[in-house]
Amino acid sequence: MQAPTISSTISGGAFLIQPSLPENTFTPEDLSEEHRMIIEMCDDFLQKEVLPNLVAIDRQDAGLMPSLLDKAGELGLLGAAFPEQYGGLGKDFVTATLINECLGGGHSFAVAMAAHNGIGSLPILYFGTAEQKEKYIPKLATGVMKGAYALTEPGSGSDALGAKTTATLTADGNHYAINGQKIWITNAGFADVFTVFAKIDGDKFSALIVDRDTPGLSFGEEEHKMGIRGSSTRQLFFENCIVPKENLLGEIGKGHIIAFNILNIGRLKLCAAALGGAKLALKTTIAYAKTREQFKRPIASFGAIQHKLGEMAVRIFAAETALYRTADWIDKKEHELENAGKGDNALLGAAEEYAIECAMLKVLGSEALDYVVDEGVQIHGGNGYSDEYNISRAYRDSRINRIFEGTNEINRLLTLDMYLKRAMKGRINLMEPAMAVQKELMSIPDFGTDDAPFAAEQKVIANFKKAILMCAGGAVQKLMMQLDQEQEVLMNIADMAIDTFQAESMLLRAIKMQNSGHANATIALDATRTFLYDAADRINHAGKAAINSFADGDEQRMMLLGLKRFTKADNYNAKEARRRIAAQLLEHGNYFL
User: Fold this and answer.
1) How many Cα atoms sit within 13 Å of 361 on the Cβ side?
2) Does domain 430-588 have CATH number 1.20.140.10?
3) Over pLDDT 90: what percentage of the chain?
4) Is the torsion defined by CA of 68, 70, 73, 78 positive or negative?
5) Nearest to 349 by CA among 1, 121, 11
6) Residue 572 has pLDDT above 90, yes or no
7) pLDDT per residue as tens digits for the range 492-511
8) Which residues are catalytic?
9) Topology of domain 28-147, CATH
């Protein structure tokens, strides 16, 4: 029987129930020659302008950060993805993602840049009127103006809609008077324009554009932070801050649409920046491990160090692969929406389609970076605790990423929440696959073998998906309306989905590299099989925790047996695989896949 044709894109979240083919999967090996030139330009900028000035950046030397943003703007790095009509370069979403990754090793500079050309500019670009766009976007695209995003308040962290800042129409009906306070506002020390969220008439959550020189707007002192010390972070105070009515951004009472849609893009780009930071931290650590000697040998020659280096590369490979697979989906969806006449907000619509993947990427990217810098410090030993070595800065700077763009806990909860809401609305058919898994639990297991290349790995991933559907379906049936109160269960299942998404993305990339005869195909397969081997245990553990939280008796026993079946993986010598990966890292001197 002829196999069905599989599309190069699938709907958001549908990777869980739909197959994908390697040849239809975008991977970093598909980056164009232009992309390679952009990588080189970004690296040159970091090496010449940013990395030699890290100490001065952390001191927040006057004018330094704005001048660096000016230089990035002159190179087109700030407005690469902005439309040409507004002074940008009109590049695609994959290119924008690549720039965020390549500059992600810039520590505090990466934070300032991402805040400016992401949340600091995109609300106006996608929700502004024609007049607002003409006024602000050309200057934001080139860095002439710097942008910031004012959402968080002292009493509202993850509960963004709980904001207390108000905007009241003045007696003349031509202005809004803003009163309230914002905290943790990145770029506040030098930004020229702010997207400010406030409640009009005390209850209509809305957004307004506020210029820096607006009377009634004042600023707190710079925050003294654990990490990203070179980024400007201040409080904003609004005391009868009068802004023209024309500065209303979007519709009254629809501020949540702006906030949440911009966050989808921000989450993916945070993963990209974290990936860039992880690659630089790995490069730094490799160099140290090759030169640091103990017992008359470079520490890189010891198995314990090679294990760490190999695992760092595995996690980077996983994050990188999942990131560019999703970026390409968003890019294709954006073009599809443009062709359908929805060009004004095509990127936002595309990002919303893949909001589940964006939430997962935010978690897996930030946690991959955390692992890499933590082990980087460990490999440096006592020196890693000294400011003399940059790995200590990388360690401090990394920690904020699990809080930025919605905490990782919130993003885990969102992952399952979005799945369930889409299932209820008919956007994704989870019911039939979940029922099929339940029937399979009652049947005799298939112990047959398939000798086709990669069949074993593909079966493992297919079974991971069954484990997720089994746990999610069981939780919904048993807990029903109380499920949203069982956050531990939701996060358990989200972890299963995050590991599965990475594992499938890695396998598709490894097969594609193998089929094309890529020089690094064998190492890519080592990384993939190592990840699969470990993910089987993690998924089993998370699934067991979920099942034991809501099931008991015969139902519990049946589900635990099914979980054991669905998380079975062939024995694999991951130690030797990590050693092979480490050997290549040491030969190349950096992450090379």
Assistant:
1) 30
2) yes
3) 92
4) positive
5) 11
6) yes
7) 999 999 999 999 999 999 99
8) 405
9) Butyryl-Coa Dehydrogenase, subunit A; domain 1 (1.10.540)
